[in-house]
Backbone:
């Protein structure tokens, strides 16, 4: 962000103070859209750096809009950034702002529920937990009944890794107004309690420079996945669109096979073969008549790999169990795979029980774990950001694609890139949802999508189907089968360029 600010200032021939003023204008406008001036007294807490300068500028601009504003500038070290100092000078010349500079003792104001607190203490510059008087101030704000708006970043929250942070020393904002781009910490589950709703404010930073910056983190947008969609040839036939093999569903768990196969078929694949224990035959023939069946030698579990070369993608793992014979068949199946491979659920659990086998898994394989499954594979972190970093490292080390499932599912690539997915909601937290994603991935890989594109497109469509289903059915009532039913609508929405529903706390 510092590089981006500096480049924008050069490109647009403006000063850093002018850029700060632009950011403050957007923030003041966003506040005014939600809290009317006549009903909302405002208290601004500003730190000594540029985030404090943003806060003082917001205070001045809100006063100009008719708000009753109190501004507190905390300058206990007797040092302000240049732009913060200039905004202090400007606010002293502004009518309608009750300004206090705190250099030692602080007499805290009463904060009532009808007030709005603007947090501008630290912003994105913090690289260690808040301590001392600032920590005390943060606790005071959090204990108050007032609504809280954080400028750029809730104070006390670091922009990336917060594993060693002190939760009580982080502002709990109701709304965070962040500038131009999301910060990685905003997409981590534990931090939602601090960020609240997030609005990303476009302040006109250099798009060209942003595209050239070296960062591992990306946020997938609808325009990105629309460009990934392959055109289906007019004279295509079922062979054109690939043949997927699904190894899933032991006896008593055939639902996983049904869901994966139906999702695969609804995602455009030409043919699907389900490798299944013999006792699942009748149920699968009735439930998924479009699918071909490959019978295992065993009646109830997966024990014999399908070593045919007829397939263009293979997915294995959902509900196959972890029996010793199943584990041996699993590693034989993966070892024979010369086509794109997806491993999910019990496939991951088998590898967790046989850690050394992971070196036998082909490069380019797609894994689709949630945090618990990743921990069984050897991740040591319960903090989501640290787990994400470990998943990213594992992807690079082994040449895998790891889809770490969460509210903002992250696709980690062998190149060390992380693509956060925006779609989806709590409706996806239902049994069988992962089986649907596995089937979708198998279909897209079988159809010829590059692996990175298949991963990003699958998680986007999977989440979008959940968003569309929740719009009609409510989040509580969506099942995995509903996700499959809404896949056609999700594909149409992408192809047609429609405005997509949004359930997450992030607004652009």
Residues:
């Amino acid at each position: 962000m510092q590089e981006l600010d500096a480049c924008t200032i050069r490109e647009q021939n403006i000063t850093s103070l002018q850029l700060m003023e632009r950011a403050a204008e957007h923030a003041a406008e966003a506040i005014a859209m939600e809290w009317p001036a006549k009903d909302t007294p405002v208290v601004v807490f500003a730190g000594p750096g540029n985030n404090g300068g943003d806060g003082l500028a917001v205070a001045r601009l809100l006063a100009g809009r008719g708000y009753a504003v109190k501004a507190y500038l905390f300058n206990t070290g007797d040092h302000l950034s240049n732009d913060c100092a200039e905004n202090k000078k400007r606010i002293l010349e502004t009518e309608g702002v009750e300004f206090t500079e705190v250099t030692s003792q602080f007499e805290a104001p009463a904060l009532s529920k009808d007030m709005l607190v603007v947090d501008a203490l630290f912003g994105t510059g913090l690289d260690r937990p808040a301590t001392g008087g600032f920590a005390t101030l943060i606790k005071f704000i959090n204990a108050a009944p007032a609504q809280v708006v954080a400028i750029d970043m809730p104070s006390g929250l670091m922009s990336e890794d917060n594993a060693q942070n002190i939760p009580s020393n982080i502002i709990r904002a109701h709304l965070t107004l962040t500038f131009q781009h999301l910060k990685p910490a905003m997409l981590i589950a534990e931090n939602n309690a601090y960020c609240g709703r997030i609005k990303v404010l476009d302040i006109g930073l250099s798009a060209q420079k942003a595209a050239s910056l070296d960062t591992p983190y990306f946020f997938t947008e609808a325009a990105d996945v629309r460009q990934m969609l392959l055109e289906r040839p007019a004279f295509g036939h079922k062979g054109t669109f690939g043949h997927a093999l699904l190894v899933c569903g032991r006896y008593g768990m055939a639902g996983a096979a049904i869901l994966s196969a139906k999702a695969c078929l609804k995602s455009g694949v030409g043919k699907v073969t389900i490798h299944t224990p013999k006792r699942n035959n009748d149920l699968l023939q009735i439930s998924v008549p479009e699918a071909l069946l490959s019978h295992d030698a065993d009646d109830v579990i997966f024990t014999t790999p399908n070593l045919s070369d007829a397939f263009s993608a293979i997915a294995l793992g959902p509900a196959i169990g972890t029996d010793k014979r199943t584990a041996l068949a699993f590693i034989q199946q993966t070892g024979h795979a010369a086509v794109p491979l997806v491993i999910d659920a019990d496939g991951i659990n088998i590898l967790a029980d046989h850690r050394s086998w992971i070196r036998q898994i082909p490069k380019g394989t797609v894994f689709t774990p949630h945090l618990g499954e990743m921990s069984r594979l050897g991740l040591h972190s319960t903090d989501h950001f640290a787990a994400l970093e470990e998943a990213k490292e594992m992807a690079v080390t082994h040449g895998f694609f790891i889809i770490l499932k969460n509210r903002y599912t992250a696709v980690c690539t062998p190149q060390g890139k992380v693509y956060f997915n925006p779609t989806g909601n709590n409706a996806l937290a239902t049994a069988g949802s992962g089986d649907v994603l596995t089937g979708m991935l198998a279909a897209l890989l079988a159809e010829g999508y590059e692996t990175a594109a298949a991963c990003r497109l699958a998680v986007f469509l999977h989440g979008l189907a959940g968003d569309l289903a929740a719009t009609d059915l409510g989040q509580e009532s969506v099942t995995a089968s509903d996700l499959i039913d809404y896949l056609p609508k999700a594909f149409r929405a992408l192809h047609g360029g429609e405005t997509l529903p949004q359930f997450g706390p992030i607004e652009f």
In short: The first helix runs from residue 2 to 12. The chain is about 40% helix and 15% strand. The mean pLDDT is 96. The longest strand covers residues 69-74.
